[in-house]
Amino acid sequence: MRTTPSPTYPQQFDGLKGELEQHDIETILSRIRSLSKVIGSAKVHDLDGPGFAALGEAICTEIGKIVDVRLPETGSAYANLVNWITGTMRDYPIEIFTTNYDLLFEEAFEFVRAPYFDGFTGGREPFFDPVSVSRGDLPARWTRLWKLHGSLGWRASSKGEVIRTGQSSASHLVFPEHLKYDQTQKAPYAALLDRLRAFLLTPDTLLVSIGFSFADAHIAARLDEALAANPSSSVFAFQYQILEEEGPACDLARRLPNFSIYARDKRK
Question: What predicted TM-score, i.e. pTM, was given to this entire model?
Fold first, then answer.
């Protein structure tokens, strides 16, 4: 993922890249947040603990800006998917699980006035309702949209609960860092991951995955457990890279006969 704070912190980014084997955003942000918690007033790469905390916040703000995008006016893959979802009456609702922060699915549903439920309800400060998420007793024409790592517009209320604001701020997300497993054990993320597990434990369920690397251990573990427990469910994983570069997905496919990978060069 592209970030832009680096021109403001050239010395720090050069130093961090020099000591890290991987230079992806998750590794760098994890290192920055770790330093912010342990070094206190001491300095590393000419920044103390509060300085690294500010750098981490700057990166997260930039992530929010990058994913705050709009759909094109002339059509998109999101619009095509929503048209397929709404094009027929269904006995069972479609459920979408996404780790993306953007509001593109929401925009596509709202454009064609198609109802969806994302776990929140209310007017002034919509609150998360885990009971409705777990029971799934809304009409089948309501698509379920589960944002496993949070969404733009989510923030913590004065009571410490996560609410949906309808704005594009990025203040309550599971950002790409090594501590994201711990973050997803809290509300509302735990309830959404439990919904993923319950979905895959439903008999004769098919989950179609598009462009997900399966490198997030907390998600892969739920998939592994549910698919092993329910042989009648299946995952079709359509991957971006060639098969040999899709290591985490291949690991799941080797263990699970109901997990299939389709890469650009071959399938497994």
Answer: 0.85
